[in-house]
Design a protein that fits this description.
heterodimer, A: alpha/beta, B: 169 residues, alpha+beta, 4-stranded mixed beta sheet, 4 strands, elongated, binds flavin mononucleotide, binds FE2/S2 (inorganic) cluster
Chain lengths: 632, 169
């Protein structure tokens, strides 16, 4: 007999929900919390008290509330947070403060009208939007993994069950053999979202085949890629989807113990996944004798300690066992020899959150979305110089053009205004990825087509850059990251990345000569070929990719000693600030090449063509009116 | 936060450390969580505590030292009372975290390579991505996240902490 009747939990919950007239959802994702969303939560409670309106903050089966105030995880639109959503009306208020609460309460909650001034205004056309149904940022997305993030209360397992949760896990344990599960997932074409896009069903089948008394499952929530935060949002916004995914994966490979390895930088994610695991265990969904089948599975949470390389599977295994998180040579793969030398599957958070959806939909139906080689949807963290930054989810195969200009609302120029001509490049795939340019705007984004052009989906960070960004500096930024994060075990990665960083510094600081770029390129090849793990192998990618697409920019630094966008201090033109310049002519006398001209007592100007960027003028000026910078 | 602010004589009493060790059943596989808890207590990992831990867990001090220095969260040096983390992840970098770091360095009068102010009031660290990129650039001061920062906003925050500290003193 199953210990737990999911239908009954769902029905009891539905019974409570059916009495709800209105639900106020306060976003309690990291972004909105930072903006003060907890104060808003408390202000609503106070306001309800003032008006004598009963307001519930938790749905208990025995209650029949009319008004519910709940917290959600990140709704993806952090930039205009804190967000307050009113359901079922579908109203979304942006940039809300606690002071706005009395007006929202009186106007919307009590009188059913909209507070116009808190609605989102589309920067493109200045139109006010009432909610996700007409905000371009949301309309163009197709949210399935993120669908419930931002709606349900992540700390209430009953809500997840009410929405159909844990049924797929029950099906996995009661209606399928592990072999069947592996086949279903292989057929679905689901590919891991951790970076490489390895087919999940195949990985599971390989592990299932191993003979061993114990097997392990690890959920990789390390999310080391800077600029990506989807795993965090899923763990915070819908942790039960990850628990359920882990249950299914565990069944498919025959694991009885699982770990969630989360970055310690994500304290809220740690707290919410811990709570979700405890709630699931309390209901008998984890632990012994799952669904009356005699199967066991339980999950532990392990906090990372700040090493990017621990995201790599074999390093993660070493770290969980209490050692330094250093990768080891393969084979054997972790699927063969992982935790305590037992077969171990490492899957990414987003992958695992997708797993229940695949089983619910069926593998055929899952394949109807996305591209043939990359079925389904992918979340992207859209950041940088774009009007709407945030977390988005689109089918694989969506183009950059749609993402940046439609969902993202366009590119921002130096002053922060929307100007699509300012677009320069998009960095995708983090420190292991590459750059895409205007030429790639219409390429369908999926594992295969990105691989063909030397980029990768990676974890899904998309950093939009406008024309004020120097691509050599972008390459240097990633090189600095990988150099600092190299575990130091193998020489090509440890020393190679160090030298690559030095060469990039030479270019940026004006010391490079004609041998620098060829040397950098040959180092790239050596490091990529000789490194032990994925970190070193992929370290040269940002350099190679920027060299491929922006070679002229590199050459301009090396040959002309000029940074075309004026971002590299040593190679940028000098400018005179007309407001500070007193016209004292000291700089005119100091300039050895006569590049400065101007009347006495009137602001001077520098002829950048003649200027040799020696800095004599800046050193002479007593009013601080001369500085480096300013695009050409 | 705890009261044992890196005081060496108190560190030598090891009472707290023993409780932490017992909580994890003195399991050497639990080294990382143990170090995390110990660091929460002392705000860094004092040398004598590391030595004590190695002996208690029956592992070599070299191995423990290797682990403690491998992970960036562990600090072998005392940290200031207020820890400022500036995100220098991709999104924050593109949106100008460099200027924030420069502002803080000059405000706190930190020389190159120095992280903690001489009065032990502030420690400045950079981290790569806090997962709040929608709010870039991001600064975290004592676990409170501040988004969409500018040099001016940073100045205000630091000045406020200084004033509060002066008021207390
Ligand atoms: C240096 C390095 C860092 C990595 N960091 C992560 C990470 O933070 N999160 C993640 O899920 N995978 C990361 N990976 C990929 C993992 O090793 C592994 O392939 C992935 O977790 C498998 O999950 P999937 O099959 O669901 O994609 C990293 C790989 C390398 C080489
Ligand atoms: S935290 Fe509220 S939308 Fe992201
Ligand atoms: S890059 Fe700074 S929070 Fe992500």
């Amino acid at each position: 007999m199953p210990k737990l009747n999911l239908e009954a939990v769902g029905t009891a919950y539905e019974h409570t929900v059916s009495s709800l007239r209105m639900r106020i959802i306060i976003c309690a994702g990291t972004g909105c919390l930072a903006g003060g969303s907890l104060n808003i939560f408390h202000a609503f409670k106070a306001e309800a008290k003032k008006h004598g309106v009963p307001l519930h903050v938790e749905l208990k089966p025995e209650d029949k509330p009319a008004l519910l105030l709940s917290k959600s995880g990140c709704q993806g639109f952090c930039q205009v947070g804190p967000l307050v959503t009113i359901e079922p009306a579908g109203i979304l208020y942006t940039k809300v403060t606690a002071e706005d609460v009395p007006e929202i309460f009186e106007t919307t909650i009590l009188s059913g009208k909209i507070v116009e001034r808190l609605l989102y205004v589309n920067p493109g056309d200045g139109k006010r939007c009432s909610g996700p149904s007409d905000i371009p940022f949301y309309v163009r997305q197709s949210r399935s993994v993120l669908a419930s993030c931002g709606l349900i209360d992540p700390e209430n397992i009953r809500e997840y069950i009410y929405g159909g949760g844990y049924r797929a896990a029950m099906e996995a344990y009661t209606a399928h053999t592990p072999e069947e599960l592996c086949t279903i997932f292989t057929d679905s074409g689901l590919r891991g979202r951790g970076g490489g896009g390895f087919p999940s069903g195949k990985k599971w089948a390989l592990t299932l085949r191993q003979q061993a008394d114990k097997k392990y499952l690890i959920c990789n929530g390390d999310e080391g890629d800077p600029g990506a935060f989807m795993d965090r949002s899923i763990l915070e916004g819908n942790p039960h989807s990850v628990v359920e995914g882990m249950m299914i994966a565990a069944r498919a490979i025959g694991a009885e113990a699982g770990y969630v390895y989360v970055r310690a930088e994500y304290p809220l994610a740690v707290e919410r996944i811990r709570k979700a695991i405890d709630e699931a265990r309390d209901l008998g969904l984890l632990g012994e004798d799952l669904f009356g089948t005699g199967a066991h599975f339980d999950i532990k949470v392990m906090e990372g300690a700040g090493a990017f390389v621990c995201g790599e599977a074999s390093a993660m295994v070493a770290s969980i066992m209490g050692g330094r998180g250093m990768p080891r040579p393969k084979p054997p793969r972790t699927a063969e020899k992982g935790l305590w030398d037992k077969p171990t599957v490492v899957n990414n958070v987003e992958t695992l959150a997708t797993v229940p959806l695949v089983l619910r939909k069926g593998s055929k139906s899952y394949r109807t979305v996305g591209t043939s080689g990359s079925p389904g949807t992918k979340t992207f963290a859209l950041t940088g110089h774009v009007a709407n930054t945030g977390l988005i989810e689109v089918p694989f195969g969506t183009t950059l053009r749609e993402i940046i200009f439609e969902i993202g609302g366009g590119v921002l120029d130096e002053k922060g205004n929307v100007d699509n001509d300012a677009f320069k490049a998009v960095q995708i795939g983090g420190p292991s990825g590459g750059c895409l340019t205007r030429d790639h705007l219409d390429i369908p984004l999926d594992f295969d087509s990105l691989g063909e052009i030397g980029a990768m989906v990676g974890s899904g960070g998309l950093v939009v850059m406008n024309r004020s960004t120097c691509m050599v500096q972008v390459a240097r930024f990633f090189m600095q990251f990988t150099q600092a994060e190299s575990c130091g075990k193998c020489v090509p990665c440890r020393e190679g990345t160090r030298q690559m960083l030095d060469l990039l510094d030479d270019i940026i600081e004006g010391r490079a000569d004609e041998s620098t770029i060829p040397l950098l390129e040959s180092l790239c090849r050596t490091v990529a070929r000789g490194s032990l793990c994925g970190l070193g192998k992929a370290a040269p990618s940002p350099v190679l990719s920027t060299l491929r697409h922006f070679r002229q920019e590199y050459e301009s630094h090396v040959v002309d000693k000029r940074c075309p966008v004026g971002a590299c201090q040593a190679l940028s033109d000098f400018v005179i600030d007309g407001l500070l310049c007193r016209g004292c002519t000291a700089c005119v006398k100091a300039c050895p090449v006569g590049a400065i001209a101007g009347e006495k007592k009137a602001p001077h100007v520098i002829d950048t063509e003649r200027c040799i960027r020696c800095g004599a003028c800046m050193a002479t000026c007593r009013f601080g009116a001369i500085r480096r910078g300013g695009a050409a | 936060m705890n009261t044992l602010t890196g005081d060496r004589t108190e560190a030598a009493s090891f009472g707290v450390v023993c409780r932490i060790l017992d909580f994890y059943d003195r399991d050497p596989g639990m080294i990382i969580p143990i170090l995390q808890k110990v660091q929460e207590e002392y705000r860094y990992l004092p040398e004598e505590v590391l030595l004590f831990l190695a002996t208690s867990l029956e592992i070599s001090p070299a191995r423990l030292y290797g682990i403690a220095t491998f992970y960036s969260h562990f600090s072998l040096e005392p940290k200031g009372k207020h820890v400022i983390k500036v995100c220098d992840g991709t999104a924050c970098h593109v949106k100008g975290s460099g200027a924030l770091i420069e502002t803080l360095r000059s405000m706190l009068a930190l020389e190159k390579g120095v992280k903690t102010t001489s009065d032990m009031l502030f420690t400045l660290e950079t981290v790569s991505c806090l997962g709040a990129c929608g709010l870039a650039p991001v600064v975290v001061i004592d676990d409170t996240v501040h988004g969409q920062m500018t040099p001016d906003k940073v100045r205000v925050l630091i000045t406020k902490i200084r004033e509060e500290e002066d008021a207390e003193a």
